[in-house]
Every structure is written in structure tokens, then in C-alpha cells.
Amino acid sequence: MALIELRIQSLRNIRSLSLQAPLGINLIHGSNGSGKTTILEAIFLLARAKSFRSNRIGPLVTQGEKQLTIYGKIEENQLSHRIGIQKQGRETTIRIDGQRLTRSSELAKILPVQIFTPHSHQIIERGPEYRRRFVEWGVFHVEPNYLEQYRRMHRALLQRNSALRSSTHLDPWDLEFAEAGEAVNRYREQYINALKEFVTQEVQEIFSGHTLSLDWKRGWSEQQTLLESLQAHRNSDRDKGFTQLGPHRADLHLLINGRKASEVASRGQQKMVVFAIKMAQMQFFTANSQIVPILLVDDITAELDRDNLYKMFDRIDHSQSQCFITATDPYHFDVKSMAGVFHVEHGSLHVV
């Protein structure tokens, strides 16, 4: 997978920018606030129709402009696609090869993108929803039926919570939520079990001398079906006004040498652990689809020493992914080994 052309109009401090990117590792460097992370944000927007820096697209439009537009041309196995996103007012328009899309999930299928940022360690430090999102990315890309079941589960959960608060009949929503929820969990467990082999391989390369275990907690008792658990907790759920157990409460425990990573790993170690599991996700995705996702790495030098940076670059190179890396200082890198080097200043891009 390769993004061979990117055009940005009116995104944050970038009024107009065009980028032709080669395969391999592309380094984008510049001072803080220059616009280098905004270029990664534009690529992410093409892939997800949302930002990794903000929950809303509207505020991303350059001050004084009415709309933002991002265009990308991608190639995979000698096939090319054109992707465009335009934001004006409250309306977001997405097009692939000129055809308008109604669901942004189609973008993720056609342009798989993995991202690593200075905040990626939050997968370890923060709550279960961060780790569920990590799992969702992987399951979505390898199991075509997952999204349908997930949406079905989410709709049933909303209806069940509403019924709990209004004291209406729960049976139909218990059945619907349990059926969809069991399916969602099966897909998740199958994915985690298959991912473990790839995690072990990456940890040996990146985090040698340690073991990393993935311990999946599905969100309800292992001794009960989901339906049995829902029925057993009905009274408690009515008192609380929401569904306390189920796949929406699942968690992935990351264990270093048998202990929780959040308790024993330094910030730098946490980043290396997260980088390892994200690279494992990419390797698993490629093994199943024969497609190599695009990798975005923002501010790679933050809180990492030279040895760990070398390990990261080695794994990125080994992945054969087209990669876009941002940094404030290019002298941390062997610039001659880069496929492309770009300098950003005041929202303008220059080839180095």
C-alpha cells in the first residue's frame, strides 16, 4: 500500500500543500507548530474521516477559510484509487474514485493506516476503552463480519440501557445483546489468540530479555453465558440504570514478565511495548491480506534513547511499510537511508 500523492487545502496552519511520497520511510521535520504533524493528520483523515488529535473536524479548518479539502491517490498491486474528503460547515463529504460514500468505514478498508504518537503509551496507562480500540482496529481489518455484529451489539446495548431506566420489558434486548455480544467476543478472542504469535516475534526484536503476555478479559464471568450474566444482574443493572457487564466492559491486560505493564514499565518502556504490539498488528494484517498498511509515526524521538530508536527503525524497515515519520531534528537519523526527506516551515513543504 502506498500513498503516492497528497494534497491539503485549509487544514490548520496549512493553506495549500502538495506532497509526492516515495515508498519506504519518509522523514518530515520542522520546528514545533510548523505543520509536520498536520500532514500526518491529513493522511489519517483520509483513512478514517476523523482526526487523531481532535474529536471534531470543524475546528480543523484554517481560520478565515470556509472549508477544508484533502485529496490522496493510493496504489496497491498496480491498482490506484482516488480519495477525497471535504468539510464545509456541518457537512463532511467523502468520495472514493468520484463516488460519494455514506459510511467512513469504507475508507478504513481501502486505506489501512496504523499510527504511533507520543500519546500511544496511553494504551497501557489509561482505561480499558483505549485497549479495546487497539483490538478493534485489528479485528475490523481481518474479520469482515465484525463491524456488523459490533453495530448490532451497540444498538442493543443502547436499547437495553433505555429499558433499564424506564422499567420496560428487558427480554428482547437481553436476547439481542447477548447474541451479538457473544459473536463480538468470539471474533475478539480469535484475533487475540492469533495475534500472540506475532507479538512474541516483535517483542523478541524490540523488547528482548522480557516476555509480553496478552490476557483478554471478555467483560463477564467465564462461568456464565452472556445471557445468563445479564439475567443474573438485572436487579443491580436496574438500580444502576445501565448494563454493567458485557463486551463493552472487556479489557486487554498487557503483562511484562507476568506483571501489569502499567505497574512495572517506565514511560520509555511503555512506548516500546506499544510499538511492538502495533507492529505485530501490522504483521498479522499483512499475513492475512497480503497488504502492508501505511505507518504514521509522530515525534518519534520523544522519550526514547538512541538504542530504542535504532530498534524501531529496524522494525519499520523490516515491515516494508510506507512510513511517514515526523521529528523536530533530522540529525537523530541517517538521512541518506530515507526514501524521502521533507522540511516543513510555516505550513509550507520543501523537499530536502
UniProtKB/TrEMBL annotation:
It is found in: Cytoplasm. SUPFAM superfamilies: P-loop containing nucleoside triphosphate hydrolases (SSF52540). One of its GO terms (molecular function) is ATP binding. One of its GO terms (cellular component) is cytoplasm. Its main location: cytoplasm. ATP binds at residues 30-37. One of its GO terms (biological process) is double-strand break repair. The keyword Nucleus does not apply. InterPro entries: AAA+_ATPase, DNA-binding_RecF, P-loop_NTPase, RecF/RecN/SMC_N, RecF_2. The keyword ATP-binding applies. It holds the Pfam family SMC_N. Residues 22-348 form the AAA+ ATPase domain. Keywords: ATP-binding, Cytoplasm, DNA damage, DNA repair, DNA replication, DNA-binding, Nucleotide-binding, SOS response. Belongs to the RecF family. The RecF protein is involved in DNA metabolism; it is required for DNA replication and normal SOS inducibility. RecF binds preferentially to single-stranded, linear DNA. It also seems to bind ATP. This is DNA replication and repair protein RecF. It comes from Candidatus Sedimenticola endophacoides. The gene is recF.
